[in-house]
Amino acid sequence: MMMTPKSELCIFKSEDSVSCALSVMKENNYDVAPVETDGVLDRFVEKEKLMGKPGSLICDKVAQFITIKHIVSEHTSIENLLSLFCQQDFFFVIRQGEVAGIITYADLNKRVVKTLFYLLVSELEELLIKLIKHRFPKIEDCLKYVSPKRRKELQKTLIEAKKGNTEISMEHYLCLSDIMTIISKDVELIKSFGFTKSQARKILNPLVELRNRVMHQRPLITSKEEKVKLKEKYDILRDLTQRARNIVFED
After folding, report:
1. Are 131 and 248 in contact (CB under 8 A)?
2. What is d(CA 122, CA 128) in angstroms, rounded to the nearest whole number?
3. Over the stretch 104-158, which tens digit does the pLDDT of each residue have?
4. What is the pLDDT of residues 70-113, one digit of tens each?
5. Cα dihedral across residues 108, 114, 119, 124: positive or negative
C-alpha cells in the first residue's frame, strides 16, 4: 500500500550511461533506481553516488547489488518500517522472490501511515478521557485547567448544542490539546502516569502537533531527519497508550 510499484519505477539497463541515468533521476527527483540485467532487477544506483562518477561510465560498472539489507517483504508492517527507516532511506519490496516495487522514507507521508497514527491517537484519546472522567466525576471541573478563552468556547458549544437538542457530555467536545493540557496540569493524573510535570509537558505536547498533521493532511515528515522523530512519536504513543490502559484496567 505504501510502495511505488515496479510498473511505475524508473528502471535503467546495465548498458545505460551514468550521465543518462543521472539526468533522468534529476529530472524526476529520484534518489534511487533499480538496474536491470538480463530481465532481472538485481542492482541499483543512487543519485548522490552517481554525481561523483564519470558520465561516460555505464551503469553496469557502478551499480550496487541488491542484498538482504536492501529488501523487505510486501507483508512488512508499518510499525516495522518505522524502525527500519531509522537505519536506511529506502528498501526494495520483494514479492515471490522478485522486486515488486520500492519504498522510501518519503512514503511515510502517505495516507495509509496517517491512518495508522489516526487510529493510535484516537485510542489514546479514548483512554485519557476515561482517566479524566474518573478523576473528575463532574467533568466540567476539569475545565479549570484550560485557558479562559478555550473554556468560553467549550461552554458556548455546549449551549448551542442544548438549543439544537444535540447536546452530549462535555468530554466529547474536548480536543486532544485540551486533554493533554488537563493531564499535564493535574498533579494526580501526572502521578498516575509516573511522570513529573516537566516530563509530562515534554512527552505530551509533541503528540498534539502530530495529531494536527494527521487530521489536517499535512506531511508527517518534511525532511530525512524527521523520520527518526516520527518513530520516537510512535513509541511515545504506544507507551502512553499502554500506561493509560494499565491505569484504566487497575481502576
Report:
1. yes
2. 10
3. 999 999 999 999 999 999 999 999 999 999 999 999 999 999 999 999 999 999 9
4. 999 999 999 999 999 999 999 999 999 999 999 999 999 999 99
5. positive
